[in-house]
Design brief:
Length: about 350
Protein backbone atom coordinates (compact mmCIF):
# COMPACT_ATOMS: atom_id res chain seq x y z
CA UNK A 1 0.00 0.00 0.00
CA UNK A 2 1.36 3.47 -0.91
CA UNK A 3 0.84 6.28 1.58
CA UNK A 4 0.70 9.94 0.77
CA UNK A 5 3.30 12.28 2.34
CA UNK A 6 2.91 12.86 6.04
CA UNK A 7 2.88 16.22 7.85
CA UNK A 8 3.47 16.49 11.58
CA UNK A 9 2.33 19.53 13.60
CA UNK A 10 2.72 20.00 17.36
CA UNK A 11 -0.13 20.00 19.81
CA UNK A 12 -0.06 20.57 23.58
CA UNK A 13 1.04 17.80 25.94
CA UNK A 14 -1.52 15.80 27.85
CA UNK A 15 -1.36 13.35 30.71
CA UNK A 16 -2.33 9.72 29.97
CA UNK A 17 -4.20 7.38 32.27
CA UNK A 18 -0.95 5.78 33.48
CA UNK A 19 0.48 9.17 34.57
CA UNK A 20 3.10 9.48 31.80
CA UNK A 21 3.39 12.51 29.57
CA UNK A 22 2.43 12.05 25.92
CA UNK A 23 2.70 14.52 23.07
CA UNK A 24 -0.03 14.57 20.44
CA UNK A 25 0.70 15.92 16.99
CA UNK A 26 -1.92 16.21 14.29
CA UNK A 27 -2.44 18.10 11.06
CA UNK A 28 -6.07 17.68 10.18
CA UNK A 29 -8.45 19.75 12.37
CA UNK A 30 -11.11 17.02 12.14
CA UNK A 31 -8.84 14.10 13.12
CA UNK A 32 -10.57 11.35 15.14
CA UNK A 33 -9.88 11.04 18.79
CA UNK A 34 -6.78 9.03 19.77
CA UNK A 35 -7.70 5.57 21.04
CA UNK A 36 -6.39 4.01 24.20
CA UNK A 37 -2.62 3.75 24.58
CA UNK A 38 -2.63 -0.04 24.04
CA UNK A 39 -4.90 -0.07 20.98
CA UNK A 40 -3.82 0.34 17.39
CA UNK A 41 -6.42 0.83 14.66
CA UNK A 42 -5.59 0.50 11.01
CA UNK A 43 -8.37 0.87 8.46
CA UNK A 44 -8.17 -1.01 5.20
CA UNK A 45 -8.50 1.45 2.35
CA UNK A 46 -9.30 -1.38 -0.10
CA UNK A 47 -11.91 -3.49 1.66
CA UNK A 48 -13.03 -0.88 4.17
CA UNK A 49 -12.72 -3.48 7.01
CA UNK A 50 -11.32 -2.06 10.23
CA UNK A 51 -8.91 -4.27 12.13
CA UNK A 52 -8.05 -3.72 15.76
CA UNK A 53 -4.88 -4.99 17.38
CA UNK A 54 -3.74 -4.63 20.94
CA UNK A 55 -0.05 -4.10 21.66
CA UNK A 56 1.81 -2.91 24.73
CA UNK A 57 2.96 0.71 24.70
CA UNK A 58 5.86 2.01 26.70
CA UNK A 59 4.42 4.91 28.77
CA UNK A 60 7.85 6.53 29.17
CA UNK A 61 8.08 7.32 25.44
CA UNK A 62 6.10 10.21 23.90
CA UNK A 63 3.29 9.28 21.57
CA UNK A 64 2.65 10.97 18.22
CA UNK A 65 -0.23 10.67 15.82
CA UNK A 66 0.57 10.64 12.12
CA UNK A 67 -1.97 10.67 9.34
CA UNK A 68 -2.04 11.30 5.63
CA UNK A 69 -3.41 14.36 3.88
CA UNK A 70 -6.62 12.54 2.84
CA UNK A 71 -7.01 11.09 6.38
CA UNK A 72 -7.29 7.55 4.95
CA UNK A 73 -4.53 5.93 7.05
CA UNK A 74 -3.33 6.80 10.50
CA UNK A 75 -1.57 5.01 13.33
CA UNK A 76 0.34 5.64 16.56
CA UNK A 77 4.12 5.56 16.70
CA UNK A 78 6.96 6.48 19.02
CA UNK A 79 9.50 9.23 18.29
CA UNK A 80 12.94 7.78 18.88
CA UNK A 81 14.79 11.10 18.53
CA UNK A 82 12.70 13.24 20.85
CA UNK A 83 13.65 13.35 24.51
CA UNK A 84 12.89 15.89 27.18
CA UNK A 85 16.36 15.46 28.67
CA UNK A 86 18.11 16.71 25.49
CA UNK A 87 19.30 20.26 25.92
CA UNK A 88 19.82 22.84 23.16
CA UNK A 89 23.15 24.68 22.89
CA UNK A 90 23.21 27.88 24.96
CA UNK A 91 22.25 31.06 23.15
CA UNK A 92 24.89 33.77 22.81
CA UNK A 93 24.41 36.70 25.22
CA UNK A 94 22.58 39.77 23.92
CA UNK A 95 24.70 42.83 23.21
CA UNK A 96 24.54 45.58 25.78
CA UNK A 97 22.36 48.54 24.78
CA UNK A 98 23.94 51.94 24.98
CA UNK A 99 21.91 55.15 24.98
CA UNK A 100 22.83 57.68 22.33
CA UNK A 101 20.95 60.99 22.25
CA UNK A 102 19.20 61.87 19.00
CA UNK A 103 20.85 64.57 16.93
CA UNK A 104 19.38 68.05 16.99
CA UNK A 105 16.87 68.73 14.21
CA UNK A 106 16.40 72.12 12.61
CA UNK A 107 12.99 72.72 11.05
CA UNK A 108 13.10 74.65 7.80
CA UNK A 109 9.92 75.81 6.08
CA UNK A 110 9.61 75.39 2.35
CA UNK A 111 8.81 79.06 1.84
CA UNK A 112 11.65 80.41 3.99
CA UNK A 113 15.29 80.31 3.12
CA UNK A 114 16.33 80.69 6.79
CA UNK A 115 15.64 78.23 9.64
CA UNK A 116 12.41 78.76 11.56
CA UNK A 117 13.52 80.50 14.78
CA UNK A 118 11.52 82.43 17.32
CA UNK A 119 11.55 86.20 16.90
CA UNK A 120 14.20 87.96 18.95
CA UNK A 121 12.78 90.95 20.84
CA UNK A 122 14.44 94.25 20.18
CA UNK A 123 14.63 95.06 23.92
CA UNK A 124 17.19 93.88 26.44
CA UNK A 125 17.48 90.15 26.96
CA UNK A 126 16.57 90.45 30.65
CA UNK A 127 13.40 92.50 30.03
CA UNK A 128 10.08 91.41 28.62
CA UNK A 129 8.81 93.44 25.64
CA UNK A 130 6.20 96.07 26.49
CA UNK A 131 3.04 95.02 24.66
CA UNK A 132 0.69 97.56 26.22
CA UNK A 133 0.96 99.88 23.20
CA UNK A 134 0.56 97.26 20.50
CA UNK A 135 -2.38 97.76 18.15
CA UNK A 136 -3.18 98.03 14.47
CA UNK A 137 -4.28 101.31 12.90
CA UNK A 138 -5.89 101.05 9.45
CA UNK A 139 -6.32 104.15 7.28
CA UNK A 140 -8.59 103.73 4.26
CA UNK A 141 -7.16 106.21 1.77
CA UNK A 142 -9.04 107.96 -1.08
CA UNK A 143 -12.41 106.54 -0.11
CA UNK A 144 -15.12 107.68 -2.53
CA UNK A 145 -17.79 108.93 -0.10
CA UNK A 146 -19.31 111.79 -2.05
CA UNK A 147 -22.93 112.89 -1.49
CA UNK A 148 -25.24 113.88 -4.31
CA UNK A 149 -28.81 115.27 -4.41
CA UNK A 150 -31.48 113.57 -6.48
CA UNK A 151 -35.10 114.55 -7.13
CA UNK A 152 -38.15 112.33 -7.01
CA UNK A 153 -37.41 110.88 -10.45
CA UNK A 154 -33.87 109.90 -9.51
CA UNK A 155 -32.11 112.59 -11.59
CA UNK A 156 -29.30 114.72 -10.26
CA UNK A 157 -30.27 118.24 -9.26
CA UNK A 158 -28.86 121.17 -7.34
CA UNK A 159 -29.55 121.51 -3.64
CA UNK A 160 -32.94 123.25 -3.69
CA UNK A 161 -36.22 122.98 -1.90
CA UNK A 162 -37.51 120.54 -4.51
CA UNK A 163 -34.71 118.02 -3.91
CA UNK A 164 -36.12 114.94 -2.20
CA UNK A 165 -33.09 113.16 -0.72
CA UNK A 166 -29.31 113.02 -0.55
CA UNK A 167 -27.45 109.80 -1.31
CA UNK A 168 -23.93 108.59 -1.95
CA UNK A 169 -22.68 108.85 -5.49
CA UNK A 170 -22.20 105.29 -6.76
CA UNK A 171 -21.60 103.66 -10.12
CA UNK A 172 -24.68 101.43 -9.97
CA UNK A 173 -27.35 104.13 -9.72
CA UNK A 174 -25.68 107.23 -11.18
CA UNK A 175 -23.98 106.13 -14.38
CA UNK A 176 -25.68 108.80 -16.52
CA UNK A 177 -24.82 111.45 -13.98
CA UNK A 178 -21.17 110.44 -14.04
CA UNK A 179 -21.15 110.57 -17.83
CA UNK A 180 -22.63 114.09 -17.80
CA UNK A 181 -20.03 115.15 -15.27
CA UNK A 182 -17.24 113.66 -17.39
CA UNK A 183 -16.02 111.38 -14.59
CA UNK A 184 -14.98 107.77 -14.59
CA UNK A 185 -17.25 105.10 -13.14
CA UNK A 186 -14.37 103.86 -10.98
CA UNK A 187 -14.42 107.17 -9.09
CA UNK A 188 -17.78 106.35 -7.50
CA UNK A 189 -17.12 103.15 -5.55
CA UNK A 190 -18.30 103.62 -1.95
CA UNK A 191 -18.94 99.87 -1.77
CA UNK A 192 -15.17 99.30 -1.38
CA UNK A 193 -15.17 101.26 1.88
CA UNK A 194 -18.27 99.36 3.00
CA UNK A 195 -16.60 95.98 2.41
CA UNK A 196 -13.42 97.02 4.22
CA UNK A 197 -15.35 98.22 7.26
CA UNK A 198 -17.28 94.97 7.50
CA UNK A 199 -14.07 92.93 7.28
CA UNK A 200 -12.22 95.00 9.87
CA UNK A 201 -15.00 95.41 12.42
CA UNK A 202 -15.91 91.70 12.32
CA UNK A 203 -12.34 90.55 12.98
CA UNK A 204 -11.27 89.10 16.37
CA UNK A 205 -8.54 91.73 16.41
CA UNK A 206 -11.17 94.47 16.66
CA UNK A 207 -13.21 92.57 19.24
CA UNK A 208 -10.06 92.29 21.36
CA UNK A 209 -9.73 96.09 21.35
CA UNK A 210 -6.53 96.23 19.28
CA UNK A 211 -7.84 97.93 16.12
CA UNK A 212 -8.39 101.57 15.19
CA UNK A 213 -9.88 102.68 11.85
CA UNK A 214 -9.72 106.00 10.01
CA UNK A 215 -11.31 106.91 6.68
CA UNK A 216 -9.63 109.54 4.50
CA UNK A 217 -11.95 110.42 1.62
CA UNK A 218 -11.05 111.72 -1.80
CA UNK A 219 -12.48 115.12 -0.70
CA UNK A 220 -9.89 115.13 2.15
CA UNK A 221 -12.42 114.51 4.88
CA UNK A 222 -11.06 112.54 7.81
CA UNK A 223 -13.49 110.22 9.63
CA UNK A 224 -12.78 108.39 12.88
CA UNK A 225 -14.54 105.03 13.37
CA UNK A 226 -15.24 103.75 16.87
CA UNK A 227 -14.48 100.03 17.38
CA UNK A 228 -17.98 99.42 18.83
CA UNK A 229 -19.90 100.75 15.84
CA UNK A 230 -22.16 98.33 13.96
CA UNK A 231 -21.99 99.10 10.26
CA UNK A 232 -25.19 98.19 8.33
CA UNK A 233 -24.87 95.03 6.26
CA UNK A 234 -26.72 96.36 3.23
CA UNK A 235 -25.24 99.09 1.07
CA UNK A 236 -28.46 101.11 0.95
CA UNK A 237 -28.55 101.52 4.72
CA UNK A 238 -24.81 102.17 4.80
CA UNK A 239 -25.27 104.94 2.25
CA UNK A 240 -27.91 106.61 4.42
CA UNK A 241 -25.64 106.38 7.47
CA UNK A 242 -22.68 108.04 5.73
CA UNK A 243 -24.89 110.79 4.32
CA UNK A 244 -26.18 111.49 7.82
CA UNK A 245 -22.59 111.60 9.08
CA UNK A 246 -21.52 114.06 6.38
CA UNK A 247 -24.47 116.32 7.17
CA UNK A 248 -24.29 116.25 10.98
CA UNK A 249 -20.59 115.66 11.56
CA UNK A 250 -21.09 112.80 14.04
CA UNK A 251 -23.21 109.71 14.67
CA UNK A 252 -24.19 108.98 18.27
CA UNK A 253 -25.31 105.72 19.82
CA UNK A 254 -29.02 105.29 20.47
CA UNK A 255 -28.64 104.07 24.06
CA UNK A 256 -25.55 105.62 25.67
CA UNK A 257 -24.93 108.60 23.33
CA UNK A 258 -21.47 107.26 22.49
CA UNK A 259 -19.81 108.89 19.49
CA UNK A 260 -19.58 106.04 16.96
CA UNK A 261 -18.59 108.01 13.84
CA UNK A 262 -17.27 111.54 13.68
CA UNK A 263 -15.45 113.93 11.37
CA UNK A 264 -12.18 115.15 12.85
CA UNK A 265 -10.05 118.11 11.86
CA UNK A 266 -6.35 118.50 11.39
CA UNK A 267 -3.78 116.50 9.45
CA UNK A 268 -3.81 112.74 9.62
CA UNK A 269 -0.37 112.32 11.17
CA UNK A 270 -1.49 114.44 14.14
CA UNK A 271 -3.93 111.68 15.15
CA UNK A 272 -1.43 108.84 14.83
CA UNK A 273 0.93 107.75 17.63
CA UNK A 274 4.33 109.34 17.30
CA UNK A 275 6.13 105.97 17.63
CA UNK A 276 3.89 104.10 15.18
CA UNK A 277 5.40 102.12 12.32
CA UNK A 278 3.71 103.57 9.23
CA UNK A 279 3.44 101.27 6.19
CA UNK A 280 1.71 101.94 2.88
CA UNK A 281 0.37 98.95 0.94
CA UNK A 282 1.25 98.95 -2.74
CA UNK A 283 1.37 96.60 -5.69
CA UNK A 284 4.54 98.02 -7.22
CA UNK A 285 7.03 96.74 -4.63
CA UNK A 286 8.61 93.31 -4.37
CA UNK A 287 6.19 90.97 -2.56
CA UNK A 288 7.15 89.76 0.90
CA UNK A 289 5.62 87.20 3.23
CA UNK A 290 3.60 88.90 5.90
CA UNK A 291 4.37 86.73 8.94
CA UNK A 292 8.20 86.96 8.80
CA UNK A 293 7.93 90.68 8.13
CA UNK A 294 5.70 91.34 11.13
CA UNK A 295 8.00 89.30 13.39
CA UNK A 296 10.89 91.55 12.44
CA UNK A 297 9.08 94.64 13.75
CA UNK A 298 9.35 95.89 17.32
CA UNK A 299 6.52 94.31 19.35
CA UNK A 300 6.12 97.38 21.58
CA UNK A 301 5.28 99.81 18.76
CA UNK A 302 1.85 100.19 17.13
CA UNK A 303 1.50 99.49 13.42
CA UNK A 304 -0.31 101.86 11.05
CA UNK A 305 -1.10 100.70 7.52
CA UNK A 306 -2.49 102.78 4.66
CA UNK A 307 -4.78 100.89 2.28
CA UNK A 308 -6.16 102.37 -0.90
CA UNK A 309 -9.98 102.19 -0.89
CA UNK A 310 -10.33 103.12 -4.56
CA UNK A 311 -10.94 100.93 -7.59
CA UNK A 312 -8.26 102.45 -9.81
CA UNK A 313 -5.51 105.01 -9.58
CA UNK A 314 -1.95 105.54 -8.38
CA UNK A 315 -1.04 104.39 -4.89
CA UNK A 316 1.18 107.33 -4.02
CA UNK A 317 -0.91 108.33 -1.01
CA UNK A 318 0.64 109.35 2.32
CA UNK A 319 4.11 109.69 0.85
CA UNK A 320 5.16 112.28 3.42
CA UNK A 321 3.92 110.15 6.35
CA UNK A 322 4.85 106.53 5.75
CA UNK A 323 8.18 104.93 6.67
CA UNK A 324 8.08 102.48 3.77
CA UNK A 325 5.95 100.60 1.26
CA UNK A 326 5.03 96.93 1.33
CA UNK A 327 3.53 94.43 -1.10
CA UNK A 328 2.12 91.23 0.44
CA UNK A 329 1.27 89.31 -2.74
CA UNK A 330 2.35 88.95 -6.32
CA UNK A 331 -1.32 89.14 -7.36
CA UNK A 332 -3.67 92.10 -7.37
CA UNK A 333 -5.76 91.95 -4.18
CA UNK A 334 -8.86 93.88 -3.22
CA UNK A 335 -8.73 96.29 -0.31
CA UNK A 336 -10.94 94.10 1.89
CA UNK A 337 -8.68 91.06 1.31
CA UNK A 338 -5.61 93.09 2.28
CA UNK A 339 -7.31 94.20 5.49
CA UNK A 340 -8.30 90.63 6.28
CA UNK A 341 -4.78 89.27 5.70
CA UNK A 342 -3.24 91.86 8.01
CA UNK A 343 -5.78 91.15 10.75
CA UNK A 344 -5.26 87.38 10.50
CA UNK A 345 -1.47 87.71 10.56
CA UNK A 346 -1.49 89.87 13.68
CA UNK A 347 -4.03 87.61 15.38
CA UNK A 348 -1.65 84.69 14.95
CA UNK A 349 1.34 86.75 16.04
CA UNK A 350 -0.39 88.18 19.12
CA UNK A 351 -2.15 84.91 19.99
CA UNK A 352 -5.71 86.23 19.59
CA UNK A 353 -8.37 83.54 19.14
Amino acid sequence: MVFSPMIISPRPRRLSESGSTHTLRTMHPQSPRVPASNTRIRPNSVSGVTRTRTSPVDPSRPIFQMHSRDNSDWYLFHDEDMSEESSAPPSPPLPELTYQPAPAVTIVHAHDSQPCDLPVPLQDAGKMPDISNRRLIVVLERASLEPCWVDTTGHHTARTQTASKCTLLNCDEHQKLLMRMGREISEARPDITHQCLLTLLDSPLNKAGLLQIYIHTSQRILIEVHPDVRIPRTFKRFSGLIVQLLQRGAILGASDSKVLLRIINGPLDAHLPHDAIKIALTGNAAPRRLQPYLRSLAPSRPIAIFVGAMARGPDNFAEHIVDGRLSISEHALSASVVCGKFCCALEDLWDIV
